[in-house]
Amino acid sequence: MDAPSTPANGGGIPASCATAPPSSLGSRWQPLAYQERAHRPEGSAAQPSADAALVRRTLAEIEPVADKVTSYFYALLFLRDPDLRALFPAAMDVQRDRLFKALLTAARHADDVPVLTTYLSELGRGHRKYGTVAAHYPAVGEALLGALARYATQTWDATAEAAWARLYTTVSQIMIDAAAADERTSPPWWQAEIVAHEPRNHDIAVITVRPDAPYPYRAGQHASVETPWWPRVWRHYSFACAPRSDGLLTFHVRAVPAGWVSGALVHRARPGDVVRLGPPAGSMVADHSTDDGMLCLGGGTGIAPIKALVEDVAQHGRSRPVEVFYGARHDDDLYDLDTLLRLQKVHRWLSVRPVVSDGPTLGLSGRLPQVVRKYGPWTAYEAFLSGPPGMVRSGVDALLGIGIPPHRIRHDSLDELLASAGAP
């Protein structure tokens, strides 16, 4: 499935594929980089709450003119470093939206070091596939500050500029460090041959690929995929299987309107075609040190990582209860129900309930989150949600409302927003 909302290679903060000391970021950023490292303990906050507040004020001002801000950013960026343009996809319209989401995310979590560091480290590792290097950082930073200075006329001053500079320095250094560490053990991408292409209906296909090298991942994660038909355009899809002994990977792909990658994978790809895979990402993974029950909500192709989690539990040999609610609009949209029902027959600890929101059904009727509330109690369960962003949001609200604490609810809606930050 598309990792929630199918993030692509968007945004404007490039990651490095090589180790780069702070001095390589350019003279404007060098003092800040050294200052940050010299005056903060390891693992402490990169910028105080006052900086975070200034950053958020700037974002609040420019949000109504986000399109203009991001267009101006890219104009400055490509003016300063024309070679960077070749690293981006030909169409930049979606790219602009993703950059602003990246800024919102960094600002929102600027004073939450664990969240920000986890996100940026994953982003840095993932962006090695774009071919960017640490030398690109100064141009990106200057373009970012230049665009903010032009459009944040009410809140922009020397103090705000310094706060943004500190934030950007921290962001870039975390990404550079993560990319450099990853380079020692992993390639920037994997070539993967399509070995099976199974259409399930007019817009969904189950695609199995064979990577050219071992591909380590965990059930519940997702990978970015680039097709030969749309170079430099990447989309994220969740793994639909737990790690297999033969090394094969399976994805569920729904062709969406104007979806370049999804349309190509569903309607054009055939066995023998070769795609590229970025590294695995995502945190919707199971904790196998506990026997607590798992409550899984999958909507549409969001059932793909749920199926992988079920297989993962089976592989670990733990008889923990797993309750799966599989949501769709119509019975015909439950394209993988037979697979789940077969798993249910094999594993007594697994329960599968189809939920249909529109029209008659042989399963349960209603909206998925509301139906789940009728069962339970779920307070002792770990919850996993995957599907359209609206379903995930309403599902989280419903689960919180019935007493499941936030730390026991796992989903990639935050990671989806974060992953959309991207670099070239």
Automatic annotation (TrEMBL):
Keywords: 2Fe-2S, Heme, Iron, Iron-sulfur, Metal-binding, NAD, NADP, Oxygen transport, Transport
InterPro entries from the UniProt entry: Cbr1-like_FAD-bd_dom (IPR008333), FAD-bd_FR_type (IPR017927), Flavoprot_Pyr_Nucl_cyt_Rdtase (IPR001709), FNR_nucleotide-bd (IPR039261), Globin (IPR000971), Globin-like_sf (IPR009050), Globin/Proto (IPR012292), MRET (IPR050415)
Catalytic activity: 2 nitric oxide + NADH + 2 O2 = 2 nitrate + NAD(+) + H(+); 2 nitric oxide + NADPH + 2 O2 = 2 nitrate + NADP(+) + H(+)
Membrane spanning stretches: none
Region ranges (Disordered): 1-26
Enzyme Commission numbers on file: 1.14.12.17
Cofactors required: FAD; heme b
Statement: the UniProt record of this protein carries the keyword Transport: yes
Record flagged with keyword Cytoplasm: no
Residue stretches making up the FAD-binding FR-type domain: 187-287
PROSITE patterns reported in the protein's UniProt record: FAD_FR, GLOBIN
Positions of the Globin domain: 46-180
Origin: domain of life: Bacteria
Family as reported in the entry's similarity comment: In the C-terminal section; belongs to the flavoprotein pyridine nucleotide cytochrome reductase family.
PANTHER family xref list: NADH OXIDOREDUCTASE HCR, PROTEIN RFBI
Protein name, UniProt field: nitric oxide dioxygenase
Organism of provenance: Streptomyces luteosporeus
